[in-house]
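Methods — Computational structure assignment.
A single polypeptide chain was analysed. Its primary sequence is given first, followed by the predicted tertiary structure written as structure tokens.
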Amino acid sequence: MRKLKNNELNRLTVEEFKNTNKTPLIVVLDNIRSLNNVGSVFRTSDAFLIEKIYLCGITATPPNKEIHKTALGATDSVEWEYVEETLTAINKLKKEGVQVLAIEQAENSTKLNEFMPVENQRYAVVLGNEVKGVHQKVVNASDKCIEIPQFGTKHSLNISVTTGVVLWDLFAKIKNLDS
């Protein structure tokens, strides 16, 4: 077994990425304080052909060298927009028919492994602040709360890990619907 070289990976160019059909997923970052986490979300969003990222509240925006360290250029490929109030972004998305999923531990949440996307439905996943999570007003405005089942002693995952788990799971389920 031999590791592949970068030039053997057949990756899209930025222009090809922008012109390709996207996964019907949007990411909303609700007051993320770590620039490394923001960069990581961009990189993961690039990997799974995410439509767009909304950067809300205190979430930093590109260009920024700290974001770039972990994004590795994904700020050029993934469409993004800054919106001061997370609720403004949520309300806009809901008017467009997007189902909003807060990724949060909440009463009556749905376990990620039990959630099944519906064909031809666009989804937005809302990821919250590293300490406070998704703001309660945003949880209230969401259509559903999705929770990653956890079995150890800790009660949460880092936002970059959460993003990877959630986007991969939804991407795989959506692609399975398409086939």
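Note: Residues 37 and 48 are 17 Å apart (CA to CA).
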